[in-house]
Amino acid sequence: MPKRPKQNSDHAQRHNTPTLDNEAIANHLEALLTPAIFAQQRYYKQLGLRDRVLNLSLMVAAVLTLLWRQVPGVQELTRLLAREDLLWCRSTNIAQQSLSERFLVFPAELFERVFKDLLPQLQINWQQRLKRPLPDSVKFALRNFQQIWIADGSTLEALFRKLKSLEHLKAGQLAGKICTVIDLVNRLPVEVWFHTNPAASETNFEASLLSLLPAKTLILLDRGFYHFQFLQQLINQDVQFITRLKAKASIKYLKIFSYDYSVKDRLIQLGTVRRGTPVLTLRLIEIKVGKTSYSYITSVLDPLILPPYVVADLYRRRWRVEEAFHTVKRLLGLSYLWTGSINGIKLQIWATWLFYAVLVDLADAVADELSLPFDRISLEMIYRGLYHFSVAYDKGNALDPIQYFAAPENQDLGVVKYLRKPVSKLDLSPFPAPS
Predict the structure, then answer these.
(1) pLDDT score recorded for residue 45
(2) Over residues 289-298, mean pLDDT
(3) Less Cβ crowding at N or C end of the chain, within 10 Å?
């Protein structure tokens, strides 16, 4: 039999009808976002924008409705707007062409500013939840670091267009590249940058990252940021990092902290003096799991500050940023382009990450209600479960989404992930005993 052509999972067939509206979810979104929207009204007027029907408030409501109710396109959104109140905005008749054109030209920076105004409130929400436990490696690292962040880039792959007016344009073009910083502790996005060149490497975001990072930060980086000048600049700013060692690296061993079959922890010098490239003094940690060996390098030179197994466990959690990209692209539809303009792409990027932050906040509240680590909560099933909550709410069987998702009778929704294997206790020793 001939093989079926390989399909991009980002472009799986989407459904054709929006999900149900829900008063409780609408009220929750309104309470979170109304202060941030109100704070931008003055800036909205400074841009010379008139207080027309499609103003900032209605555009934010329309975009959030696109996301949380999984509206398949702007045409269907126009129908909804004519028949229903969208969150805090009353129903109104708008020509589809007017709405489509508004998506093309509405200043994306307004959505960026609403997003950044919302983040401090979500961080306060996180700090007020005390029942949800943190991973041992994270708690240990926070003794010496004020924050633990993850940075990574992702290409906005060949995107489909939702606006009918753009169907004649060539499909399958890459839309650019984003770089995102995620807080490993609370899982909220810290910053998002966009580059119009989809082939841009992570080095294009180095200057922005350096200006963002405060002292006493631990940053987890993939090998796209493996650049000695950049790593030295991080050290100079009192920012420490963990990343993976590249193959064929030039290594000079200076000191042994631990040396065993399972773990090797050594002080090294990395690199050679060529073309002004600095030689870095780092720690090389090699962990053997079964027949597989993993190598990490870190600028934290003292095993008492970051023991070897803590380094390995923290870097394993770097995958959380990949999960965030998976969520915004496949679950929240960032692989389906609403517009063909750069401004429109930015608008969608900021709107999607804004809703992602709201979804993280809801999942964290569920984790706290259940006294479970955030890692045990599925963002995807929280998002998909909003439909079931809406049905239960309409029947009078539920009032609050957090209580609904935490209820024992609703665990079949898959909100709590099953443990594939027991969680073993992490070895926090700076000098692990020989195995």
Answers:
(1) 85
(2) 92
(3) N
Residues in the chain: 435
Read off the pLDDT of residues 209-219 as tens digits, 9 standing for 90 and up. Answer: 999 999 999 99
Tokens linked to 165: 């007016």
Mean of all residue pLDDT scores within the chain: 88
Q: How far apart are CA 318 and CA 338, in angstroms?
A: 30
178 within a domain of the structure (yes/no): no
DSSP single-letter state for residue 13: P
The Cα 42–Cα 244 span in angstroms is 46
pLDDT in tens, 387-435: 999 999 999 999 999 999 999 999 999 999 988 777 789 999 999 988 6
Is position 90 within any domain? yes
Domain limits for position 31: 9-109+340-413
| Residue 312 near residue 141, CB atoms below 8 Å | no
* Position 319 in a domain: no
- Lowest average pLDDT, out of 193-197, 273-277, 326-330, goes to 273-277
From the list 130, 19, 97, 106, the residue with the least C-alpha distance to 54 is: 106
Give the total number of structural domains in the chain.
Answer: 1
**Identity of residue 8:** N
Tell me how crowded residue 279 is: count the other CB atoms within 10 A of its CB: 15
71 assigned to some structural domain: yes
In sequence order, which residues have a C-beta less than 8 Å from that of residue 290 and are 6 or more positions away? none
Query: 285 phi and psi, to 5 degrees?
Result: -120, 125
How far, in Å, CA of 149 to CA of 395, rounded?
Answer: 42
